[in-house]
Design goal:
Layout (H helix, E strand, L loop, with lengths): L2 E5 L2 H10 L1 E8 L2 E8 L2 E7 L4 H15 L3 E10 L9 E9 L4 H6 L9 E3 L2 H13 L4 E8 L6 H11 L3 E3 L2 H11 L2 E10 L6 H29 L1
Parallel strand pairs: 1-4, 1-5, 5-10, 6-8, 8-9
Antiparallel strand pairs: 2-3, 3-4, 5-9, 6-7, 6-10
């Protein structure tokens, strides 16, 4: 049984494609899906596109069609907490939507989720912590939030006040929700491209390639640790 790896952009998926051995590709639900070996293990890799709808669709497709045993989201994120520095790796422990009223939409509406916050899988987290011990870079663990917007100084204070996240992105909460609904393990690995001190979409564009490579390298170590646990 394979592990699913989902990236949002071509920049994020490129380092994985460069390491994917014996890759075969098809197009499903408008996106490219690749099967091959990564870190010596069978994986199904896809680039879902930006945003929560694309992210959830990709996860559901990997779960239904490929029956993946777990999904790792890998890519880039904006640092929100002061300690989240440029090019740090952030591993999400919990995931929430910062642009959704969780009480009304998730908890009080069908199918009545028990919480508006979704947690990373315990075994994948154990593997991530093992990988962090071997990492030469800084790896931080904490909450992630997602929304359909690029967060800059104008929105930063509000998101921090409501969620106090370590990092922010546009996909991880949707993936975590889809995996929770299907009983599939999930974790997110993100390289930081911009912070309060390095704010703006321009910094994201400048730093996204390096941050994507760092996220790929850490994911490789995580996958190896996850397999060794079994």
């Amino acid at each position: 049984m394979a592990i699913g790896i989902v990236c949002a952009t071509k920049t994020e998926v490129t380092p994985f494609l460069e390491k994917l051995e014996g890759a075969t590709g098809v197009k499903r639900a408008a996106i490219d899906v690749y099967e091959g070996e990564f870190a010596g293990e069978p994986v199904v890799l896809t680039c879902c596109g930006v945003g929560k709808t694309n992210a959830a669709m990709a996860c559901q497709m990997l779960i239904d069609r490929y029956e993946v045993e777990g999904i790792v989201n890998a890519g880039t994120a904006g640092g929100m907490a002061p300690e989240a520095g440029l090019f740090d790796i952030v591993v999400g422990t919990t995931f929430a939507h910062h642009d959704v009223d969780a009480q009304m939409v998730l908890i009080e509406s069908y199918p009545y989720y028990p919480s508006g916050v979704f947690s990373a899988d315990g075994e994948l987290m154990e593997a991530a912590r093992a990988a962090a011990q071997r990492s030469e870079g800084i790896v931080r663990f904490g909450s992630m939030v997602s929304g359909e917007q690029f967060i800059d100084d104008a929105q930063r204070g509000d998101v921090i006040a409501r969620h106090d996240p370590l990092a922010v992105d546009m996909e991880s909460a949707a993936m975590a929700q889809a995996c929770f609904a299907n009983g599939v393990a999930f974790v997110s690995v993100r390289g930081i491209t911009d912070t309060a001190e390095h704010d703006g979409f321009g910094n994201y564009e400048i730093n996204s390639a390096k941050a994507s490579v760092l996220a790929c390298d850490f994911t490789e170590s995580l996958v190896k640790a996850f397999v060794n646990q079994g």
